[in-house]
Amino acid sequence: MAALIFRGVAFEFRSKRSLPAWRVAWDHAIFWGSLLPALLWGVAFANILRGVPIGANFTYLGSFFNLLNPYSLLGGVTTLLLFTLHGAVFASLKTTDDLQARASRTAKVVAPAATAAIVAFLAWTYVNAHHAHNTGLVPPLVPILAIASIGVVGWLLREHLDGWAFVATAVGLICLVATIFLNLYPRVMVSSISPAYDLTIGNSASAPYTLKVMTVVALIFTPLVLVYQGWSYWVFRGRLSRPAQPGPVEPVAGADFDASPLTESGTS
C-alpha cells in the first residue's frame, strides 16, 4: 500500500521542478512504487494457495519470513514479469517513434522469461494441489490457455501484431487469476496447520445484512466505474509522442522583430 501511495505522489511531484536530479529521484520512486506491488501481488496469492499458519481461532501464527518461501517468490517473479510484459505491450500501442521502439524491445525481451515463469508457477501449483488432493474446480483448459496466451506474445510482437499481443497478455492474466481462484474454491485462504482451520466462503463471510447492502452498492456503482473507465480510455485513446525540440534560433542582423520560432498555431 505504501508503495502505491508513494508511486501516486511521485507522478504529481515529478513535474513540480525542472531540475534533472529532482526528476530522476521521482522517476526512481515511480519505478520502485510500480515494481513492489507487482512482485508482492504474486507473493501474496502464492502464499494463499500454498497455505499459511492459521490456527484454531483463525488467526495468523507465523512471522514475516514464513511468507518468503521459494513457491511464493516464484509467484512474485511470475506476476512481476507478466505485468511488465503487459505494460510494455500497452506502451508500444500508446506511443510513437523511439518510445514505441523501446517499449517493443522491452516486451520482446520479457516475453520468453514471462512464458517460462508462468509455466513453472502453474506446474508447481498443480503439483501442490495434487499432493494435497485438492485441485479445486480448475478445468485443464484454463491454465493451458494461460500458458499458450503468454507463449505466443513473442511471435505476435515479431510479426508487429501489437494489438493481438495485448489481447494475448490480457487473456493470459485473466486465466492465471481464474486458475488461482478456481483452485482455492470454496476456500479463500489455506491453513498450513490443518484443513480444519482453512478460511472458507462460509466461515469468513460477513453478516447477511452487510452482504445485502454491499450487493446493492456493487450493482449501482460497478457499472458507473466501468463506464467511467471506458470513457477515460476513449478520451485518451490517441498515441503519445515526445514534444518536438526546437533548435536554437539564429538572430537576424539588423532585425527589429521577435525572432523566436512560431508555434503550431502561429502564422507567417
Query: What global shape is seen?
Result: globular
Total count of domains: 2
Tally of helical runs: 8
Report the count of strand segments.
Answer: 2
Helical/strand content category: mainly alpha
Q: Order of strands in the sheet with the most strands? A: 1-2
- Beta fraction: under 5%
What's the gyration radius in Å?
A: 24 Å
Element order, helices and strands? Answer: HHHHHHHEEH
Question: What is the makeup of the main sheet?
Answer: 2 strands, antiparallel
Supply database-style keywords.
268 residues; mainly alpha; 2 domains; two-stranded antiparallel sheet; 2% strand; disordered C terminus
What does the model show?
The protein is globular. By secondary structure, it is mainly alpha-helical. It has eight helices and two strands; from the N terminus they run H-H-H-H-H-H-H-E-E-H. Helix 2 (about 20-50) crosses helix 3 and helix 3 (about 70-95) runs antiparallel to helix 4.
